[in-house]
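Dear U.,

Please find below the material for section 3 of the report. The protein was modelled together with NAP; I have listed the sequence and SMILES used, followed by the predicted complex structure.
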Amino acid sequence: MNSLRPTVLLLGATGYVGRHLAERLDAEGYRVRAVVRDKARACAPGAWGSPSLASHVAEWIVARDAAEANRDGALMEGVDHVVSALGVTRQKAEPWDVDFLMNLAYLELAEKRDVASFLYVGVMHADAGTSMLSRSKLAFMEALRRSSVAPQIVNPSGYFSDLTEIYDLARRGLAAGLGDGSVRLSPIHGADLAEFCVAKLPGGAGTWDVGGPEVLTYREIVDLAFEAAGRTPRYLAVPGGVGSAAIWFADRLGPRRASLTRFFLEGMRTDSVGQPTGTRTLRDYYASLRD
Ligand SMILES: NC(=O)c1ccc[n+]([C@@H]2O[C@H](COP(=O)([O-])OP(=O)(O)OC[C@H]3O[C@@H](n4cnc5c(N)ncnc54)[C@H](OP(=O)(O)O)[C@@H]3O)[C@@H](O)[C@H]2O)c1
């Protein structure tokens, strides 16, 4: 163990962004202490080209939540920074329990141990969203802003990982979107986002909206997916009213479906463009899926 390396406690390490964060932290000379639910899964390669954690984590904490992770009271010992990409995406869990309460439990442990900063990967427009996902993330951001630990909040545009679904639709020959698809995004690769986050660690508190190097309309993303799939673009323009009906319907199918539907449809109605960063393009990413 090299005690000269600053230690980062990494939360959400097994996710798409978490894996890229571990790789980047390690490359930049940080010592990574990662909380994971399943070490064997963590050591296997991740989805969408994200790396195995095996060679990037110096210290493993296998736990399901903050209390278990801190069972010996030593979780935050020697920790200089906390970095969290912990949040519900495809997991069967309530965003309030994970995005808000679980992150808050880790923050409270950090506050007791004089950790210098807590960097949180949030989402753009959380203050305008009506989904439980947006509300849970906003609640945590508000708690973090009032913390004694320097808050660093990074709100990314859509990830390449999520936009893989459009490529999968294109391969099947038909993609759909709300209206004419003119909403604008600046999609970002996990490695570019990780590079941005890790560069912020030594600086102070701040909030950043961040995107990849290009601004694209949803329709342009669809066209890139069809181009990579080698198929003629076929786009189904779903009228806005159908989106509202889908929200009405999802609200009656239970809280999880309601949250996901609202989050997805609100995302398709609002531009998500952040400060440009990184070099990786969606065209190259889609090409890598084809190869
Ligand atoms: N996808 C996008 O386009 C996008 C855009 C902006 C912001 N974001 C946000 O960025 C963050 C990271 O996204 P991502 O794509 O990297 O997500 P991801 O791949 O699903 O990773 C989420 C991480 O949180 C952990 N987690 C989830 N539920 C948990 C639970 N109940 N108990 C313990 N751990 C739990 C996961 O652990 P396991 O691996 O064990 O499940 C994983 O390590 C999320 O908060 C997401 O909402 C996403």
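For the text of the report, you could mention the following: The chain is about 40% helix and 20% strand.

Regards,
Y.
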